[in-house]
C-alpha cells in the first residue's frame, strides 16, 4: 500500500490512522519516496504552538524547482507542463513542455541574477494569467528569491502596501492585460504604486497587449530582450527546508493585509500529496484550475502541486463570460479536461445562464469536479453535479485557507462518498477538532463549534512577514496550543464536516446565537433567490437584528417585493425558526466579493449600520461598483419604510 496515492475508502482510513498515530513516520516515508533532496533531514518535525514555531524536515536541503521541473526531464521532457489558453478564443493555445519550461525558467533566473537579485531578496510579481507569471515564480524559487505575487487587478494603493511591507527590490509586470473585451493598463498601476515605494530598484516589463507605455529610464526594462540574451542553463540554488519560498497576502478583516510566509520543503510535500489525491490525477490527464495564480489556490494547485506531480496544468487568461458564458465548457471540450476546479461564485453565475450553453459542448472527458473558496450551497452543488458532471464526476468541496497552504478537509474522488454542502473528511495528517465558546473540545458526532487544528501539518504558514506577534494573536491565542481557523463547522452523525461560515458571522439576536450560513441556506431555497448575505445591525429591543441582502433571479417578470419579503421570512421560519426571521431585506444586483469569491461582510455590516464613511480600499474587490449601488439601494430602502 502506498501512502502517497489513496484508491479506496478502506485504504483512506488505514492511511489516515497511520498519519495521526505516527505523523513523523508517515510524512518521512512520503518525502523519501516521492521527492529529490540535496541533503536528507536530521529531524522530521519539531513544534511548539505556544511560541508558535513549526519546523518540518529540519536540516534538509533541496530546491523546489528541481522537484517541479528537472526530475521530469528524463521521462516527461516532451510532455506539456503548462497549457496556456489565451483570453481570445481565436488566439492559439500554447503548449509548454517540461523541457521548454526548464529552459524558460533558467533564462528568467539568469535575468534575475544579472539584475542583482539574490537568495532572500523579495520580488513582487504583478502579472496577468500569462505563462510569464508561472515562469517568474519558478525563476525566483530557482535562485532562492522570495516571490510575492499580487493579483493583477489590485489597485495601486493595494500594490504599494504589499511592495513596501515585503520591501521588494524588484517588480515584474506586463504592459497590460486582457480581461474579456477590456484591456487593463497594468504598467500604469505599477507606476502609480511605485511613487510611494523607495525599495524598488528594477521593474521588468513583459509585452502582452503591445500598448504605448511610459518606461522610466534606469528603472524599467523590457523583459524579452533580456531573456533573448540569457542562457537556458543554470544550477538551482541549494535551499534549506525552512527557507521562505513565498509571501502571499491575505486580507485581514481590518487594517494591513497579512503577508503569510510559506516555506520550501513542507509546502512542496503537502501540495504535491494533496493534489495527487484530491484530484486522483493520472499520468495522461489534463487538469484545469480556473483560479488566478494571485491567490493561494493558483500557487498550490496551478503551479507547485501539479508540476511536482509531472502534471499538465491549464492556465486560462480570460473570464468565464467572454466571448459568452459557454467559454469554460468550450475549453473543457477543446483540451479534453479531466479535472476541473473552480469557485461556487463562478458556478452560480454560470447556472444563472441556463443549460443551453453547456449542452453545446462535449464534457464527457470530465472525471473530477472541484469547488474552492467558500462552501458551495446545495442548489449550486446539484446544478454542477447534474449539468457539468452528468452525475458521473464526483464533486470535491474542498475546505482550506491561504494560511494552510493546501487542501485540509475534502472528499477524495471515487474514495469518499460525497454529500452536498459537506467538505466531508480530513486529509491524512490533518487533525481537526471542534471547540465551544469556552474552549472545551466537543467530542463525538452531531456537534458544532469553532474549527481548530490540533497538530501541525507540513504546508502551514510559519509566520506573518515581519510580524510574528500578529501571527500568534490571530491564529494561536483563541484556544490553547492549537491553530484556530476562524471558521465554524459542524460534524454530522458519520463524522463528516460542514463549514458553517466565519465565526464572526455568528450574530446574537435576543440572546440566541444565530449562524448566518444556515439562514442564508434557507433564503437561497426560495425559488426566486440566486444568492444572499446576512449581517447584524443594532436593535433597541433585540440587541441585534438581521439584515439580508438578496439577489433575485432575472426572470424578466416584475415581482412584488413586499410579498417576496414575506415569502423569504416564511422559508426561514420553516427551515431555521421564527427567531431567525430578517428584520430588513434589501434586494440588490450583486454582493461585494473578494477575487477568490468570498463575500466582504465587513462592508455589508457597515452599510447595514448606516456607517459608510470609511469602507476601506474597495478597489481590490471583484466588483467594486456594486458597493455604491448597495449604498444607494439602502438609502431608498430606508426612505420608503419597507
TrEMBL record:
It comes from the Bacteria. It is an enzyme of class 6 (ligase). Its EC number is 6.2.1.1. The keyword Protein biosynthesis does not apply. Keywords: Acetylation, ATP-binding, Ligase, Nucleotide-binding. PROSITE patterns: AMP_BINDING. InterPro entries: Ac_CoA_lig (IPR011904), ACAS_N (IPR032387), AMP-bd_C (IPR025110), AMP-bd_C_sf (IPR045851), AMP-binding_CS (IPR020845), AMP-dep_synth/lig_dom (IPR000873), ANL_N_sf (IPR042099). Residues 12-68 form the Acetyl-coenzyme A synthetase N-terminal domain. Residues 519-598 form the AMP-binding enzyme C-terminal domain. Residues 70-462 form the AMP-dependent synthetase/ligase domain. One of its GO terms (biological process) is acetyl-CoA biosynthetic process from acetate. GO terms for molecular function: acetate-CoA ligase activity; AMP binding; ATP binding. Signal peptide: none annotated. Belongs to the ATP-dependent AMP-binding enzyme family. PANTHER family: ACETYL-COENZYME A SYNTHETASE, ACETYL-COENZYME A SYNTHETASE 1. This is Acetate--CoA ligase. It comes from Pontimicrobium aquaticum. The lineage of its organism: Bacteria, Pseudomonadati, Bacteroidota, Flavobacteriia, Flavobacteriales.
Amino acid at each position: 500500500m502506498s501512502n502517497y496515492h489513496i484508491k479506496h475508502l478502506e485504504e483512506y482510513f488505514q492511511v489516515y490512522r497511520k498519519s495521526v498515530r505516527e505523523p513523523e513516520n508517515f510524512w518521512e516515508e512520503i518525502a523519501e519516496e516521492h521527492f529529490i533532496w540535496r541533503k536528507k533531514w536530521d529531524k522530521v518535525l519539531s513544534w511548539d504552538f505556544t511560541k508558535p514555531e513549526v519546523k518540518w524536515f529540519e536540516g534538509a536541503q533541496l530546491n523546489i524547482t528541481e522537484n517541479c521541473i528537472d526530475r521530469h526531464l528524463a521521462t516527461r521532457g516532451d510532455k506539456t507542463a503548462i497549457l496556456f489558453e489565451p483570453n481570445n478564443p481565436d488566439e492559439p493555445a500554447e503548449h509548454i513542455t517540461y523541457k521548454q519550461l526548464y529552459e524558460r525558467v533558467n533564462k528568467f533566473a539568469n535575468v534575475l541574477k544579472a539584475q542583482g537579485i539574490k537568495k532572500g531578496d523579495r520580488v513582487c510579481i504583478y502579472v496577468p494569467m500569462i505563462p510569464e507569471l508561472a515562469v517568474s515564480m519558478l525563476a525566483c524559487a530557482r535562485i532562492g528569491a522570495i516571490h510575492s505575487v499580487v493579483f493583477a487587478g489590485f489597485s495601486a494603493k493595494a500594490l504599494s502596501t504589499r511592495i513596501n511591507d515585503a520591501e521588494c527590490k524588484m517588480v515584474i509586470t506586463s504592459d497590460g492585460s486582457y480581461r474579456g473585451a477590456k484591456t487593463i493598463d497594468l504598467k500604469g498601476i505599477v507606476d502609480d504604486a511605485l511613487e510611494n515605494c523607495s525599495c524598488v530598484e528594477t521593474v521588468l516589463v513583459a509585452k502582452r497587449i503591445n500598448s504605448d507605455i511610459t518606461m522610466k529610464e534606469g528603472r524599467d526594462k523590457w523583459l524579452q530582450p533580456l531573456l533573448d540574451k540569457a542562457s537556458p542553463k543554470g544550477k538551482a540554488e541549494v535551499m534549506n527546508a525552512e527557507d521562505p519560498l513565498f509571501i502571499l497576502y491575505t486580507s485581514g478583516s481590518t487594517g494591513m493585509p497579512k503577508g503569510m510566509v510559506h516555506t520550501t520543503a513542507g509546502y512542496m510535500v503537502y501540495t504535491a500529496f494533496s493534489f495527487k489525491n484530491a484530484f486522483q490525477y493520472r499520468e495522461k490527464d489534463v487538469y484545469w484550475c480556473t483560479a488566478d495564480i494571485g491567490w493561494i489556490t493558483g500557487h498550490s494547485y496551478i503551479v507547485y502541486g501539479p508540476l511536482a506531480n509531472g502534471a499538465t496544468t491549464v492556465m486560462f487568461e480570460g473570464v468565464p463570460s467572454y466571448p459568452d458564458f459557454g467559454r469554460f465548457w468550450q475549453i473543457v471540450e477543446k483540451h479534453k479536461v479531466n479535472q476541473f476546479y473552480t469557485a461556487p461564485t463562478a458556478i452560480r453565475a454560470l447556472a444563472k445562464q441556463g443549460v443551453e450553453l453547456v449542452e453545446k459542448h462535449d464534457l464527457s472527458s470530465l472525471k473530477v469536479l472541484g469547488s474552492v473558496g467558500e462552501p458551495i450551497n446545495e442548489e449550486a452543488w446539484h446544478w454542477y453535479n447534474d449539468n457539468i458532471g452528468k452525475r458521473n464526476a464526483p464533486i470535491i468541496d474542498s475546505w482550506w485557507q491561504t494560511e494552510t497552504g493546501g487542501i485540509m478537509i475534502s472528499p477524495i474522488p471515487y474514495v469518499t462518498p460525497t454529500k452536498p454542502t459537506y467538505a466531508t473528511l480530513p486529509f491524512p495528517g490533518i487533525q481537526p477538532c471542534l471547540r465551544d465558546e469556552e474552549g472545551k473540545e466537543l467530542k463525538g458526532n452531531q456537534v458544532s463549534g469553532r474549527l481548530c487544528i490540533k497538530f501541525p501539518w507540513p504546508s502551514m504558514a510559519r509566520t506573518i512577514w515581519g510580524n510574528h506577534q500578529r501571527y500568534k494573536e490571530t491564529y494561536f491565542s483563541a484556544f490553547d496550543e492549537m491553530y484556530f481557523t476562524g471558521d465554524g463547522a459542524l460534524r454530522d452523525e458519520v463524522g463528516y464536516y460542514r463549514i458553517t461560515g466565519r465565526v464572526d458571522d455568528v450574530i446574537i439576536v435576543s440572546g440566541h446565537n444565530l449562524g448566518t450560513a444556515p439562514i442564508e441556506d434557507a433564503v437561497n431555497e426560495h425559488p426566486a433567490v440566486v444568492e444572499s448575505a446576512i449581517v447584524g445591525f443594532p436593535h433597541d429591543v433585540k440587541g441585534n437584528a438581521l439584515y439580508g441582502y438578496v439577489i433575485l433571479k432575472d426572470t424578466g417578470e416584475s415581482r412584488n417585493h413586499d410579498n417576496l419579503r414575506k415569502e423569504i421570512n416564511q422559508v426561514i421560519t420553516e427551515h431555521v425558526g421564527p427567531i431567525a426571521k430578517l428584520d430588513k431585506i434589501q434586494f440588490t444586483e450583486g454582493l461585494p466579493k473578494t477575487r477568490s469569491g468570498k463575500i466582504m461582510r465587513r462592508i455589508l455590516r457597515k452599510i447595514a449600520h448606516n456607517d459608510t464613511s470609511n469602507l476601506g480600499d474597495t478597489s481590490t474587490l471583484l466588483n467594486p461598483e456594486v458597493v455604491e449601488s448597495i449604498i444607494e439601494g439602502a438609502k431608498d430602502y430606508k426612505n420608503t419604510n419597507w
